Amino acid sequence: TSDRSFKTTEAFLHTLANQASIGIMLSDPYGNCHFVNQRLCEMSGLTMAAAAGEGWAKALHADDRNRVLDEWHEAARHVRPFSSEFRFQRSDGTTRWVHGEGFALRTRPSEVSGHFLMVRDITARKQAVEALCVSEERYRSLVHLSPHAILVTVDDTIAFANQAGLRMMGVASAKELLGRSYLDLIRPA
Q1: Which of 24, 32, 72, 103 is most deeply buried (CB count within 10 A of its CB)?
Q2: CB-facing half-sphere around the CA of 30: CA atoms within 13 A
Q3: Model pTM?
Q4: What are the C-alpha distances in Å from 162 to residues 16, 167, 186?
């Protein structure tokens, strides 16, 4: 019955891992993969068989591969937590940004039996940040290149002035204007 109980527990854990919304990888004590769940296969574009050993590293984006492998093996060698953002380059040409977190699995306090890696897809967040940066750069260009004076004050103190604002105030650089009270600048002397 203990063999049957073990098989039931193993089947339960396998089902649970494959239903998880995060990618899961289990490795041996040296960091070589011996299990990935379905979600990790979807993110990386690899099959479970292709991910075995160091096969999972084939899905790492070429610009991230050496860094991530060094970090992963360093964490495994020194039994330290692993945490890193990196990209999977899938065979269909798409790139998925992920954040991986791993830790050692111990059978006894001094014995490492392997490592557990959780991988979250952060592609949407990365794309949102990139879109925000593009939008911010566009905004900055519009403000800086505007022919109209734009001055921003905080508590009566000038915090920002575009080029047209500097010209309107009769100064050559922002250093002459920023931090000064705009009331002092608009009152007649």
Answers
A1: 72
A2: 3
A3: 0.69
A4: 57, 9, 17
In this predicted model, what pLDDT tens digit does every residue of 61-77 receive, in sequence order?
Answer: 999 999 999 998 888 88
- The answer to whether the beta carbons of residues 33 and 26 sit under 8 Å apart is yes
Do 35 and 26 meet the contact criterion of CB atoms below 8 Å apart?
yes
Q: Which residues contact 32 (CB under 8 A, 6 or more apart)?
A: 53, 54
The dihedral sign for the CA sequence 153, 159, 163, 167? positive
| Nearest Cα to Cα of residue 100 among 76, 115, 79, 119 | 119
**Tokens linked to 118:** 């959780």
Tokens of 32: 């070589």
**Structure tokens of 128?**
């949102």
**Can you tell me the distance from the alpha carbon of 166 to that of 156, in angstroms, rounded to the nearest whole number?**
17
